[in-house]
Amino acid sequence: MPESMQAIRPGGGGPNRGGVLYFGLSTDPANLDPHLTSGSASDYLRQLAYNGLVQYDGAGEIIGDLATEFGWADELTYRVKLRSGVSFHDGSTMTADDVVFSFRRMMDKATAAASAPLLDQVASVEAPDATTVVFRFKQPDVAFPFALAAPTTNIVSRKWIESGANTKTQVMGTGPFKFVERIPGVSTTFVRFENYFESGLPYLNGIVFQPMGDDYARVTALRTATVDMIDYVPATHVGVISENPRLRFVSDKTFGFGFVGFVTSRRPFDDVRVRKAIAMSINRQSVLDTALLGHGSPMDGAMMSETFAPYAPQLAGSMPYDPEQARFLLKQAGQEGLTLPVVTTSSYSVIARPAQAMLPGLRAAGINVNLTQQEWLTFRSSVSTKVFPVHSWGTAPKFGDPASLGDFISSTGTFAKNLDFADDKIDELLTQARRSSDQSLRNEIYLDVEKRALELVPMTYTIRREQGEAHYNHVKGYEHPPKGAWTATALRRTWMEKTT
User: Fold this and answer.
1) Is 420 left (phi over 0), alpha (psi -120 to 50) or beta?
2) Which of 51, 89, 98 is nearest to 180 (CA)?
3) Tens digits of per-residue pLDDT, 432-456?
4) Which is it for the CA torsion 219, 221, 222, 227, positive or negative?
5) Across-strand partners of 126?
6) In 3-state terms, what secondary structure has residue 275?
7) CA-CA distance, 488 to 500, in Å (whole number)?
8) Is residue 253 a contact partner of residue 465, using CB atoms and an 8 Å limit?
9) Is 16 helix (H, G, I), strand (E, B) or coil?
10) Nearest alpha-carbon partner for 66 in 179, 197, 185, 167
11) Chain segment 225-243, per-residue pLDDT in tens
12) Distance (Å, rounded) from C-alpha 330 to C-alpha 335?
């Protein structure tokens, strides 16, 4: 970055302007397509260069982004009023046609868009005039606003896409920052978009993301002021960062969780007794204490957090640690001395450490574990192609509502496909819940969904983790939403206090 970009000017009573934020990122996103995702790190970059119709604010509430007005006209019609005068980074003006094109691209199976499963009830999307977009539905769908706020539900230029742009490596949206370059393994650079539609934003001149896959390297870069901010603060360093008066740690204990998934079509994991035996062989409290130094909570019941799932406490203790019962179930299934091939990733300690920490419990139940660790993208490929019958992963619900269960256990869910899992009863219940606007009824239905998942054990949950970012006190305006979803939209409004 040129030295002139580093200069910070007092904001005259408001936030300062200028400066470059250096961000130590936990991985090096290789795919920047606005409608795909390869993890939260790639979503960070995407949300700087693109906008959705709506977004999550710092408190996790849904607010407008490219939309000035939005909401249900009736139970089968959702209407959006667009901002006028929005420019793409190439200088062209965003139109309602671009919005319609973007959603049709996401709904096209060939795109494999991350938001597609939550757009499955959209019958049509049309633009009756230059500033209005109307979504018509096959049936009521209360989860649709969450789909609109997802970090991968972005609006793109139809002309740019149809010109043959390589969306994996090229970036061109309406966002507050323009993509400059990505040097693989070194950095990804963004600079201010001067014609951004929100007056005065962004405050920063630029943001440089530097991939630092190693936890210790990332924390060291922060503590030595090589970077201003990092993501995925490792549990081993939460204490030392929290106690540093120059640093701020922002996190939640709501979203991130670990799980062990089974390819349910592969023997012997097609037998629910085997899956349940493995689930009961995991000493979750020990995993939490060993892997994350207690920064989180054991998960022996619901997948969804009680922060947004009031029924969750009713399921506590549903999957206890019981190695003797596990041995009994394995014997009953004819699988005494079971050999368990498990794959996990070496790229994220919040995934790798729990996978390692669960081994003693499994071995106590007489299970022989072969654990393989792979780099992130290789691991994801191994899981999706089902190279291993069992995998240990860590992720989060896409949004803070039990409708996000569909991503994991519905027959069309991304994670369920990795498991070869489908259950008609779960599908029916999830569909009923998405149709209902009665919150009490929805909670009853989702309770039944989670009970059914605990009976069938397509995956077993391990621990809910504390996850967050850390930055120096001179970085201002950044918020980690306590609900809603993991989002980096706060970087659009971040500024620097130090002046030169």
Assistant:
1) left
2) 89
3) 999 998 999 999 999 999 999 999 9
4) negative
5) 134
6) helix
7) 27
8) yes
9) strand
10) 197
11) 999 999 999 998 999 999 9
12) 5
